Amino acid sequence: MSEFFAMGGRGFYVWMSYGITALFMVVEVIALTRSKKTVLKRLARMVKAEARGHS
Amino acid sequence: MAFKNSIAWYYFSSPKSFYPLAGRLIPWFWSLSIILLVVGLYMSFFVAPTDYKQGESYRIMFIHVPAAWMSMLIYLVMAGYAIIGMAWKLRMAEMMASALAPTGAMFTFLALWTGAFWGKPTWGTYWVWDARLTSELILLFLYIGYISLQSAIDDPRRAARASALLAIVGVINLPVIYWSVTWWNTLHQGASVSPTMEPKMASIMLTAMMIMTFAFWMYTIAVVLMRVRRIVLERESQTSWVKALVGEQVENSPAGEKQ
Q1: Pairwise CA distance, residues B141 & B169, whole Å
Q2: What is the pLDDT of residues B8-32, one digit of tens each?
Q3: Which of chain A's residues have a Cβ under 8 Å away from the Cβ of B226?
Q4: Ranges of each domain in chain B
Q5: What pTM does this model have?
Q6: ipTM above 0.95, yes or no
Q7: Which of B62, B10, B24, B53 is nearest to B209 (CA)?
């Protein structure tokens, strides 16, 4: 197992590459999900405010 | 058939009908991407043999090459949407172009990053100003320029037009990246895979690399569709269908938390 992570002495380079790639891809998805929620919340407030304005 | 297709094309070029279509497609692209990623990673680490020259560090190739390919492919598609958006004034095409940019920038950065960490054990340096690396860095600047230009202009139509122009001019950089290794004497190695030559690597390595490429590709489509849906909501927030959609969600969840 530790032999696998050592990558023949090149573990640092291999895992820095794979690790940062994985991190970026995961963070992109999380950021997107969050920003969509934020937009929906803002639009919901707008719709509510308009509904109040009309009644 | 052609007539039917052109109707479908017009139908889905309207944000109102594209929004739910994209929502239905996203889970499929996620599933494809995850399956390909699992298979691709397994092959990259456990099936592909150790390289006789580079040892284990060559395994960086299985993400480096797909990231670099995606960085160029995304730019090409982005410029294509920018042209369509400009020529036919299609809002959906403009929004697709801007939804592609951040993911394109991410893959460009990752191509440079993984390249640096592959370069160090192979060439003895993280960075060198050779034509391939420099033109890929310019691609990153083009993406960043595109994104900043869009966020700098308030009016979305004017922002789309100005940034489309930048995207189209920047296309010149793509053949420069692609052929840089042939045109100049670079430290970066020549193409290992090209349409006109027999691949210069073991077919098991090539297969793993292609699977990883398709995994990144499906990931890109899934993420871009997610982003374009958010952009549609923002840009069409004054339309009745977005208001109705948001209104429904407000009724379903009082906190407005639900997606």
Answers
A1: 13
A2: 666 778 999 999 999 999 999 999 9
A3: 29, 32-33, 36
A4: 26-49+57-245
A5: 0.91
A6: no
A7: B62
